[in-house]
Amino acid sequence: METLPISHQKFLKTINSQLFIVLLLMVACFFTWSENVAITRAIKVVGRMGVMFSSILIYQKIIRYGSINSLTYKNIFSPILYMTYLTLGFISFSWSTNPGFSALQWFMTFQSFVFAYFFVKSLKILDIYFEGHTIRLYHLLGNTVFILQLVFVIGMW
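^ thats the sequence. predicted structure below, dont judge the formating
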């Protein structure tokens, strides 16, 4: 395995930090941080919108650095079935007893889909164009879980 040039290492370290922060914020937005429903909804909508756009910007940053958006899909049925699920969820607003709450849930599911798409696509492009890099999904997930557990344990006291 070759050592990456210093400029690539600096870029990859920045990308690793950004991916970690975005993933940490995305997972943190799933939790209820306040007893007030309005504050919780605001955190969930605004926070998740922010990390969704951040995942797109990180992906664009990797492309601008020199990677090429030339990935092919091996399992096209997954996104098609997920889009079908989102379509059925959108149609279900017509018989929902609380369309506002249903719309919020649908919107959060859509945001998660877009976030996951660009987050995973960023990791895949890094695997292809920066052979030998050290950014791994299991490191990002493990560090995210550790920080959140630490916050909850400290918050317990």
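The chain has a mean pLDDT of 87.
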